[in-house]
Amino acid sequence: MTTRTADGFDIEVSDHGLGYNAPQKMGNRLWAPMFLMAVMAFPVALILSFVRASTIADASTQDDFEWAAELGHYIAGIGFIGFLAVFAAISFAIARILGRFRKGGGDVQEAVGGDVQTLKMPITAKIFMLFMMMGMMVIGVAVVLHFVAAASVGTWAIADVERWARVLEGFRRLGVAMYLFGIAFGLGTIINVIRFQSIRIGQLSK
Amino acid sequence: MTARFDALTRPKAGDDPRTNSKYLKVGLLLAALGLMVAMVTLIANIAAANNDNPVTAVETLAWSFGLTTLAFGTIKLAISVILIGILVRLWARVSAVKAALPGLKGSGDAGSPRGDIDTDHGAATETADIPEPLPIHKMARKMWFPMVAMGYMLVVVGTIVSFIWSGKVADGTQQAAQAWTAGIQFLGEALLLAGISFLLGSILAALREGGGDVQKSLGLPVRTLKMPVTAKLFVAFMALGLMVGMLQFVLYIVAAAVTSPQSFAAWAAWLGPVREFSLGLLLAGIVLALVTIGNALSFQFSRIRDIVATGK
Q1: Are B75 and A181 within 8 A, CB to CB?
Q2: Nearest CA in chain B to A87
Q3: What's the Cα-to-Cα distance from B102 to each of A48, A134, B27, B98, B209, rounded to whole Å?
Q4: ipTM rounded to 2 decimals
Q5: CB-based contacts of B96, cutoff 8 Å, min separation 6
Q6: How far is B266 from chain A (nearest CA, A)?
Q7: Domain residues for A118?
Q8: What is the nearest CA distance from B133 to chain A, expressed in angstroms?
Q9: Do A201 and B297 lie within an 8 Å CB cutoff?
Q10: Residue B50: its chain A contacts at CB < 8 A?
């Protein structure tokens, strides 16, 4: 296998299709479990929010306010497990699409005969993976800390619990923005892959 | 009007497919802008958490909420622009494949269309002509632009209202503005995600129509995948998510009229997760749309390989 640059693309030249790379294999396997986790987490958070709303509506004692604060952290944590999972599922589904292009393009070139050219992982794909992982970590850490804060209600002052909620809210939102930013780069990679393949199929017919 | 929106998704005459996509550049710039705004709001939240003056802290959190949702909306707008770029490239790919395949096609005889068939990629049909677009495809082509445009406008309007909310904190009359901010912005977010869903639906329509166009141009029976279960679920999730998104807007209007702070806090406690549930449903639909696109691509590559290897 050799590597070279053509039409502005870094490509690998081989005598057979290269199939899926590691992130694409991961995408094939993991989109479904992440999807299932997401569709379970959102309704659980919603149901707990009804319990919390009822507690707040009738709250009169310190215990009621503490229970509402504790539930608030659990609801935020579970809801954002849903967002973590659904954005991961979207990212894995995009990796799966990129895998279909890589494998399918290789298979077609193999059928034609001669060299098989495969696009090397572009910088947009690397940024996509980097931001997906960063988004996942930021939201994941925030979710864990929400559960820590929920478990600490009663030992911490209500003001501290509220302070944690505000800081974690900011981090959760940043995590979502990072995920979305990564997804934009993942989709951008698809544009470049289609451009490469459109040029390549023209070369095959000559 | 619809034709004008549809024209945005097609390559212009004389476009060189070798050039970089302008949609990609614009989309990535918008996404970077959105990420920067989200970072500003993180700093605002940390400042509010450490502010000993409760009024100033809540004022900061109010505009920070509005600005964060604007950041998400801006990145979603960026994603929409990039999806338009994908559509443009897909149509350019159809032209490239149509031009190349006659020289690559094997020498076999394809025979007559066989009607309903099973393939390794699911149930399909073989017809003499390109099948008509499905109703959801027609709807997707008409609806993506209004959804994206209205969605982003509502997010911007909600951001402005969040500053009004912030300004009313000091005199304790912020409840109505708070409810309007959340209701308007999350209806906007839901519409933006619906717009993205319709763009993904348009990509599926382009794959179906473009695949048929290529096969017909070669004089072959047109083999088309039937609508898979993932696509049906995608439509169901999107419709449900959009309905819940509209419902939360109506409920926030009702909550805006609640006067007791305790009752308002109870309303806000469950309306937040309702709006997140709406976005969750729409995002789950988007996952299924992307999975369907992956399956459609597998089918297409397998079809091209068969045409090259066997001519049928």
Answers
A1: yes
A2: B283
A3: 60, 46, 35, 7, 19
A4: 0.95
A5: A198, A199, A201, A202, B17
A6: 4
A7: 2-37+84-204
A8: 23
A9: no
A10: 163
Quick: pLDDT tens for B189-211: 999 999 999 999 999 999 999 99
Share of chain A above pLDDT 90, in %: 83
Instruction: Determine, yes or no, domain membership for A32.
Output: yes
Domain membership of residue A151 (yes or no) is yes
Amino acid identity for residue B79 in this structure: I
- Domains identified in chain A, total number: 1
Please report residues of A whose CB lies closer than 8 A to that of B23.
Answer: 191
Q: How many residues does chain A have?
A: 206
Is there a domain that residue A55 lies in?
no
Q: A136 to chain B, minimum CA–CA distance in Å? A: 15
Q: In whole angstroms, what separates CA B219 from the centre of its chain?
A: 35
**Contact state of A39 with B284 under an 8 Å Cβ cutoff:** yes
Instruction: Please report whether residue A10 resides in a domain.
Output: yes
Under an 8 A CB cutoff, do A184 and B99 touch?
no
d(CA B238, CA B280): 10
pLDDT tens digits, chain A, 206 residues: what are they? 888 888 889 999 999 999 999 999 999 999 999 999 999 999 999 999 999 999 999 998 989 999 999 999 999 999 999 999 999 999 999 999 999 999 999 999 999 988 999 999 999 999 999 999 999 999 999 999 999 999 998 898 888 888 888 999 999 999 999 999 999 999 999 999 999 999 999 888 87
Q: Who has greater pLDDT, B122 or A181?
A: A181
Contact A93 B297 (CB under 8 A): no
Average pLDDT, chain B: 93
C-alpha to C-alpha distance for B69 and B165, rounded to whole angstroms: 15
Closest Cβ–Cβ partner in B18, B38, B89 for A194 = B89
Q: Which residues does A47 contact at the CB level (< 8 Å), separation at least 6?
A: none
More confident residue, B22 or B311: B22
Q: How far apart are CA B150 and CA B145, in angstroms?
A: 8
CB contact under 8 A, A103 and B301: yes
* Whether the predicted pLDDT of B1 surpasses 70: no
Query: Measured between CA atoms, how close is B223 to chain A, in angstroms?
Result: 17
**Whole-number pLDDT of residue B233:** 98
Q: Could you tell me which chain A residue has the CA closest to the CA of B39?
A: A174
The residue of chain B nearest to residue A110, with distances taken between CA atoms, is B305
User: Which amino acid would we find at residue B223?
Assistant: R
